[in-house]
Each structure stands twice: as C-alpha cells, then as structure tokens.
Amino acid sequence: MGGVALRAEQQVDATPSVVYDLFGAGTGAGWVFDAVCDRVEPGASVSIRAPLGGPDPSPVELLGRLSRVRRPHLLEIRHEQPWRGHVRLHLDRAGTGTRVRLVAELDERGVAWLLRRHGHPVRDAVPAGSHRVGLLTTKSGPGGVFAVAAENAAELAREEIDGEGGVLGRPLHLAVGDDATDPATGVSEARRLVRAGCRTILVSTTSATFVAVSAALAGTGVLLVHTLMNEGGIDGPLRVQLGERPTDQLATATGPMMARTGGRRWFLAGNDYLWPHRCHAAAREVIPAAGGLLVGERFAPIGTRDFSPLVEAVAASGADLVLSTFVGADAVAFERQCHAMGLRDRTRTLSLAMDESTLAYVGSAAAAGISGVSGYFQDLPTSGNEDLVRRYRAAYGPWAPPLSTLSESVYEALRMYVAAVRHAGEDDPYSIAREMRTAQFELPRGTVTLDGTGAVAQRLYLADAAASTFRVSFPG
Amino acid sequence: MDTSQAFDALADPVRREILAVLADHEECSAGELSAHVSRVGRTAVSSHLRILRAAGLVTERRAGRFRYYAVDHSGAGQEVIRHLQGLFQSSLDAVRAAVEEPMSSARPDRSRAG
Fold this sequence. Notes:
The complex is a heterodimer. Chain A is an alpha/beta fold. Chain A has helices spanning 16-22, 30-33, 108-117, 150-163, 183-195, 207-216, 246-261, 274-289, 308-317, 328-340, 356-362, 364-367, 383-396, 405-424, 429-437, and strands at 4-12, 45-50, 60-70, 74-81, 85-94, 97-106, 131-137, 172-178, 200-203, 223-226, 239-241, 265-271, 293-300, 321-325, 348-351, 370-374, 438-443, 446-451, 456-457, 461-466, 469-473. Chain A contains 15 helices and 21 strands. In chain A, helix 4 (150-163) runs parallel beside helix 14, helix 10 (328-340) crosses helix 11 (356-362) and helix 14 (405-424) packs across helix 15. By secondary structure, chain B is of the alpha+beta class. Chain B has 2 domains: 3-72, Orthogonal Bundle (Arc Repressor Mutant, subunit A), CATH 1.10.10.10; 75-106. Chain B is 61% helix and 12% strand. Chain B contains 5 helices and 3 strands, in the order H-H-E-H-H-E-E-H. Chain B has a 3-stranded antiparallel β-sheet with strand order 1-3-2. The longest helix of chain B is centred in the last third of the chain and has 28 residues, at 73-100. The interface between A and B is large, with 45 and 44 residues.
C-alpha cells in the first residue's frame, strides 16, 4: 500500500485572517489549530498533540516544522514524528466566512505505526537476502523530541552503505521499532525486531529502555548497541555502549561554566530514572572537586508537564547554576517554565541531554542561557561533519530536523557496525561485537576509541544556545 | 463496521495474542491457533475469531472441513485511516465551534477533540 491523503473540510463563520490567527494561539480551537509554536513562519518548530487513542490514551505529539505559510490562505506543517508527512491547511473565503480544508499525508510507515499503536500486529516486509539490522528508537512519548532525526540519520547511513556494495555483498535492511519512551514497550518492540530476523539492534533510547531490553534479550545471541549518551555499566560480549559518559561531560563543562559566569552554587534537577541519578552521583564528585557548591537536588518523573514547584525550589535555593538532566519533552517544558518564571535572570543551565533537536522546541527566547556538552554538535567545523551535514540536507531538505549528538550517533553507530562486520568478514554477532568493542573509528565527530573495557574516548565540546540552536565554544 | 468495533476487538488480550500468533504464521487453522494460545480453550478461541472477523481484522479461508485464518491487513489499515480522518475532521469542527462560541475560547484549559 502506498501513501494516502486524508481530507477534512469545514465552513467557519469568520474571515480567513481571523481563522488563520487562531493557529498556534492556544485558544481551544481543536487539536490541530492548538499546535504549539512560538512563531507562525517557515522553519518554526511545531508540536501538535493528536488524540490518537489506542490502549494508551495519552495524546501523541506530531513533531515538525512549519514548511510553508501564506497568511491568510495557507499553513503547511512538515512533521517527522511519529511518521513523516505534511499537514496542509487551506483557508479560502466562501460567502461571508471561510472554507477550511485540511489535507494530511499518511504513508505506509504511518499506517504501520498506527496499527501497532492500536495493538494490531504488523508483519515486517523484509527483502529476501538482506542483511537485517534493527533500530529501536523513540517516535512517541516525551523522548520523541530528541529522536526526531534518528531514523533519518540511520537511513542516510544505510543508503551510503548500500552504495558501497552493502554488507558482505548483501543489501542492508533497517527494521525500525518505537519504544514510545516506555521500557516495556521497548522490550516488546525489540522482540519484534528479533522475530523480523535482526541479530543486531541499535538502541537510541533512554537508558531505562536499553537496560530493560538488555535484560530481556539476555542469552538470545542478539548484539545490542546503545548509540547515544549513557551511564555505561552494561557489560557482556554482546553489549556495546557508545556515547558520552556523565563524568566526562561534567569534567569538560563544570569548570568553564563557573569561570564564565562567576557562579558556584549548583542545583541538580532531572528525570527520575537511572541515567539522571547516575549523572547526579557523578556531579556530587566533580562539582565540589572543581570548587562548586551543591545547594539542592530534585527529581520529577518522566512525562511531567508542570515544573513550577521545582522551579520555585531552584529559585529558593539561591542557586546560580542549574545542572539539568531532564530529557526530551520534559527538558523542553522545564526550560520554558524556567524562562517564564524569571529564573534566567539569576541562573544559567548546563543541560547534559540538551541537543539541537530538543532546543528547537525550547524556542529561542527560553533557550538563551542554556549550555550543552557533548561529542557532537551540528555546527562542529570538522570537514567530516560539514560533509555529513551537506549530505543530510541534500537527502532530507531544508526543513528536516537538525542533526545532534543524539541522532548523528545513530549514523555513526551503523557506520561502526558495518566497518566491524567487514573487518570480521563474517555475519556472527560475537565476532562483530569483538571488533566493535576494541577499535578506533574516524567519524564525523572526530576520533572515537573503544578500549574493550566499556570506556569511550572522544573529544567533548561545550556549546551555548543561540537563536534556538547551539554554537560550539572550544574548551581551552 | 464502525471504527470502535476494531478497537474494541483489540482491547482483549486473548484476541491480541491470537493476532500476534497469526502475524508470525501467515495462516493457521483453528486447531493450530488453539495450540499456540494456551490460556483459553478451543471453543473460546473460535468465539474470539468470530469477533476478530466481524471487526475486519482477520480473514477466513475454507478448504474442505478445515478453516484457515490470517491477519486482514487491508481491513485494519482502512480502519486506522478512517479513524485518523475522523480525528482531523473533529479538529476542524472544533475551529468552527471556537469561532461561533467566543466564550469557549476564554477557557484556560484547551479543549481536546476526538
């Protein structure tokens, strides 16, 4: 089945301009017009809370950008999550009012995602003779924000690999699963990928899902590669954890943050699961050693939308620096509320999981005063990265979501995996894992070295938010 | 067949299990299905299959005395497409309501259509 266009239409008793201005204004004009966006102009980030239903009643965010606007006649949204498509709104004068027409695209992947969301099993069409690799990512729930570009990044690597002759002479097939930011869903999706013939799964989700999947697939002979930043500590011959470690991020950022701001009173705030807890444990070592003081700590469950008590606690503590370990939509809501409640006048934030993708939804006003630290930023001026960004834009267009350390690492992980398969010369997960666990890779972000102990050595950069993206400041 | 019928059919864990078995096996007889779905008996499996067929989620093929069942992807696919179309329509209906009842736009809590 190919793509279909869904159409809806309504006659509204107001001029096109009045109807147009309802978009993004938050006035209760239905879930499409109640889209959240700071500006109604091309390139502005948009999230639409769609009441899609299914066993999980919470709304699903369609995440994307405005791709075309012509006031008062046209609004076009290009969304990437949970599937890729456009939603177009045409507003035309009809009599004394406006005829509103909506056209939404739904492709095969969108139908498959919706069927699974409603509990209907969908068999994966796997091309015969292909080398199958799974990608377990986050297409819905609070983590959907940081993973917007993950599938694009994997698809770009796959096309390049197939262009080079594939994997051991076979085309690479990528099977994609969505953990919905929920470990139990992640486990059932990982099992589905295994049933579809994947003996390696790249996992670009929170460590809550990675740890659950790792335990559930113990003894099944499946190689799991955690692509993005994590706390480490999952060992075994078939486990590879790439990405930044909290201690390295903090060692890079803590000193410069204090030197640049003159502040030393830190408040630690993050989501209540393993990775933020490990980050805070590392911070309790690194911050005092760098001359800082810890003045408070709070956690909030993932999916929290009202952070006002927490923001008040930060303000009351007299902190001048905030270490944020919130992820995805929680990081967006926390930063927007910090800004709205005036906390930016007194504090700066170091946000370990803040990437370009998440920052785009924070918006430029609330983004000012946030710093990030990671091994990759989209504006990293290495020739390998400039090439990658050019290829990514050529493949996905100007309104594709930004690359960031959380998505570019998926591109790199697939590259590293295929390099390891070619080096091993065979399709055995144990041999492939052995090649990956002790190796040095030249990647768009630079040199990454794995020494077989689970440690990942790479250069890290501190970056400051500017106009809703990050600008890298090289540490001295 | 209305939208809720398919989703009601999917709400039952035994029926979801039957669909999962079918998804992995292309086609199964009722007897083969009963062997895989251990938590209920053969009669119960048959009645669940009737509900899944009525909801357009499963097809039945008769060959002699045997009946074979398979997942009906086209039927379920049509369901989710119709469901989503209905959600988009209701979002535009809410635009009309917001314009025609200006008081409702003053509510701090946004209405959620659908």
